Structures are given as C-alpha cells and as structure tokens.
Amino acid sequence: MYSGDVQLQSAIFFETPEELFARVFRELKPRTPAPAVRVEFCKFANANSFIRWDESGLGVRVTDVLEGSPAPILEALAHILLSKLLRRPSPRTYVERYRRYLNRKEMRRCLQLVKQTRGRKFVSGPKGSFFDLEQLFEDLNVRYFHGLMARPLLGWSRKASRLMLGHYDPSHNAIIISKLFDDARVPRVAVEYVLFHEMLHLRYPIEHRGARRCVHTREFKDAEKQFVPLKAAKEMLKRICG
C-alpha cells in the first residue's frame, strides 16, 4: 500500500489498469457508457504518459516506470489524463499525490537512469561561429567558482530559441545554450550571463519538497546576484529576445 496518502477503499487494489481507467471514466462522465480501454506500459525515456479516445475506445500509453506502482498512483494518473482529455482541470488531490510519488528519491533516481539509457541528447560541441562555450565556461569557473567546477558537456541548440535561452540537463550532464546568442551582434556579457545561470543549476540542483520542485533555491538566487554586471546583462537579454 502507498503510505503517502489516506487509505482508500481496498477494492481498487484488485483492479486491472483497464478496469481502473474505466472506473475513473465513469466517475467523470457518469451519463456516458464507458468505452473499451486498452492500457499499454511503454519504454519511454521520461515519465510522460498519453491517452486518446477514438472509435476503438480509450487508448492509454503509460511509462513502464509506473508498471507495478501502487493502485492509488495509477488512479491519480487516470484522473489527470482523463481530465485533460475531457478538458477539465485536474483535481489538485490527485495531482499532488502523483507529483509526490514521482518526487520520491528512489523514483527520481530511476527516472534519471531511464533518461540516461533511453534518451538521446544532441550536443553540437562548444565552438560556435562567434563564441566558444568552453572558453567562456573556464573564465566563469575561475571568476565565480574558484576553478573547482567540473566541466559538463557544452553545446549550442539546433534552433535559435527566444523562449529557452539555455538549460542544464542533469541526466546527460550537459549545458545547452540557445543558438540565438552565437551572433557577432550579441555582447559577450549576455552569453556569459546565460551560461553562468546554467552553471548555477549544476552547482545548486533542484530541491524536491513533497509535491513541490524548487528550481531556484535561496542559495541559487544569492549566488546569481554575484554576477557582474547583473542588471546590464538582464537588460541586454530583454533587447535580444524582445
């Protein structure tokens, strides 16, 4: 039994995944006959799951990481997926239950391993047309981290994204910077700031507190204030991405 929730009726622990999804469907649409349900556990590279409803019935594809998980977790996932399918808000109780389960230390470790072994990561290499991320990393490493930070994989994104300026992927230990910044018109300090921000994600990992994920911790924010010139760099990003 999953101990992180209130005790549920024992009946749900004997349901097949198909029966469970059919029951939740009837709860959400009591006046509609429950369609045939097919649940398949798939080897995805993450915790994503999918649902569709067509003439053949409900087709549910669930990450195999959840195969054998406690019934209350599958029930929570059923409510989340079916609510999205029916364009309804997902009940907070079920969302928090599901997130709390995924945020457990052993689940995070399992998901990271799955992403490492199954996921693909495009890393172009640090040398761009105008900036060398390896050189910038080493300069920032000396200035802000006493030269003690081990260098991760560094690369430029495939597209010049204005929405995702950079990201650190802990599963592949890689920092990717938007190709938007590999431009002669972009000031070096703007590229440095984006790279520095992602280096802080490496230095201060995401904290998991129950169902919450804290991406920018207090330590992260305090360390970011040390960047010089912080205010000018942020203003540059607004102009570049505007």
What is the tally of beta strands? 8
Distance between the termini: 51 Å
Q: Which secondary-structure class do the elements indicate? A: alpha/beta
Instruction: State the shape.
Output: elongated
* CATH C-level of the largest domain: Alpha Beta
Global mean pLDDT: 87
The largest sheet has its strands arranged as: 1-3-2
Kindly report the name of the CATH homologous superfamily of the largest domain.
Metalloproteases ("zincins"), catalytic domain
Please count the helical segments.
8
Could you tell me the radius of gyration in angstroms? Answer: 22 Å
The succession of helices and strands, N to C, reads HEEEHHHHEEEHEEHH
What's the number of domains? 2
The biggest beta sheet reads: 3 strands, mixed
Q: Helicity level, as a percent range?
A: 40-55%
Unreliable runs, pLDDT <50, ≥5 residues?
Answer: 1-12
Examine the secondary-structure arrangement and name the CATH architecture of the largest domain: 2-Layer Sandwich
